[in-house]
Amino acid sequence: xxxxxxxxxxxxxxxxxxxxxxxxxxxxxxxxxxxxxxxxxxxxxxxxxxxxxxxxxxxxxxxxxxxxxxxxxxxxxxxxxxxxxxxxxxxxxxxxxxxxxxxxxxxxxxxxxxxxxxxxxxxxxxxxxxxxxxxxxxxxxxxxxxxxxxxxxxxxxxxxxxxxxxxxxxxxxxxxxxxxxxxxxxxxxxxxxxxxxxxxxxxxxxxxxxxxxxxxxxxxxxxxxxxxxxxxxxxxxxxxxxxxxxxxxxxxxxxxxxxxxxxxxxxxxxxxxxxxxxxxxxxxxxxxxxxxxxxxxxxxxxxxxxxxxxxxxxxxxxxxxxxxxxxxxxxxxxxxxxxxxxxxxxxxxxxxxxxxxxxxxxxxxxxxxxxxxxxxxxxxxxxxxxxxxxxxxxxxxxxxxxxxxxxxxxxxxxxxxxxxxxxxxxxxxxxxxxxxxxxxxxxxxxxxxxxxxxxxxxxxxxxxxxxxxxxxxxxxxxxxx
Length: 481
Description:
Blueprint: E1 2-8, E2 11-17, E3 26-30, H1 37-44, E4 52-54, E5 56-57, E6 60-61, H2 67-73, E7 75-78, H3 90-94, H4 114-127, H5 144-157, E8 162-166, H6 174-189, E9 193-197, H7 201-207, E10 210-215, E11 218-224, H8 230-238, E12 256-260, E13 263-266, E14 269-274, H9 281-289, E15 299-301, H10 310-315, E16 318-321, H11 325-329, H12 336-340, H13 351-364, H14 381-394, E17 399-403, H15 411-426, E18 435-439, H16 443-449, E19 452-457, E20 460-461, E21 465-466, H17 472-479
Parallel strand pairs: 3-9, 3-10, 7-8, 8-9, 14-18, 14-19, 16-17, 17-18
Antiparallel strand pairs: 1-2, 1-4, 5-6, 10-11, 12-13, 12-15, 19-20, 19-21
């Protein structure tokens, strides 16, 4: 890709970007949210038309007019939010768009050759190490890791020569990540060119050969990962030295704000919940907030006990940030101001009054936007997450329930979220300290920002222990069945 330019109205999304990936290479693509990574890969995959520039595939001009043309040429783009038809079978999803018909052609009008479809789907699944997946099962019944493998199998089925992985490990267990790494190495050995987009630098060092950094739509450099340090990469991404990836201030533990059977959260502390995917961490915080019913046990916020509801939680100063910000955490079609003020939305009769009331929270969280009236769907993932957090700040919550608050956001945005959490617990800027309950799949994150950590395993919550007595090995050992 040479000199790729793309504008969306007055916004320059890509500014003369050069990018190349070699056969048999894993090439990492780094940058802050909104740096242009998705736009660049959208151009490659035929989903976005570039304004100027040129692309070559195997030394020949390549100009896909639409995604189907890119797939036919051998370019597969596997998004973080998988592009599957959940009501269709595994086999149908693997062969989606390249269905064989009885005259032997693919993707043409004609009578579907079901036996050939199943044969080719089974062969593709075997290539990705999951020949055991039932071909006739609806994809909706599969777990996230299995769904991802179905989409990777689709790239195998089309004979992809270039595969783009966009945040591929964000929802996977450790076992799922290990399997994906092995599969990626096998694709690389077969000569496939792989682009790997991720915000986890330790992950990139484990799988990638080279990296290209984008900043503000421009190429900020291409490096062999063995030749560059993490702090140098981060500085390239953000255009400046960032303070510390994990901020930590002095904290003073105070009164009990939240009490669940076997667990207490105090004012002035960050309490972490660790555990494997499926251990029940999300179900726990949803039950505390009142989204899911509590069948037994009790939840007490200060002096308030009894059944919970989201309305009661907001009233009692308890706020919740969902791990699924697009599915249930944000109203993407609404404005930033409407999202921030959602718990108190009826209090402002006019849009200007609403914008004025929410502007301080938006500014404090550093949301990069044109103003409170901008639609949330127009923001990058990191700025969308800041909007979700700004809602709790605006509601003046004492208890912050955060479920995977840094998933899918870049290194700099993650550091900003960590500083926010630290400031909440420490009571920075003269404000009162808050209590933060943090669910995270990233053990280094929990160890860096939490005061105590409890581990969930198979739906049971262990005791909260001082972070000074823990390390990654101890947490993982307790989490494993």
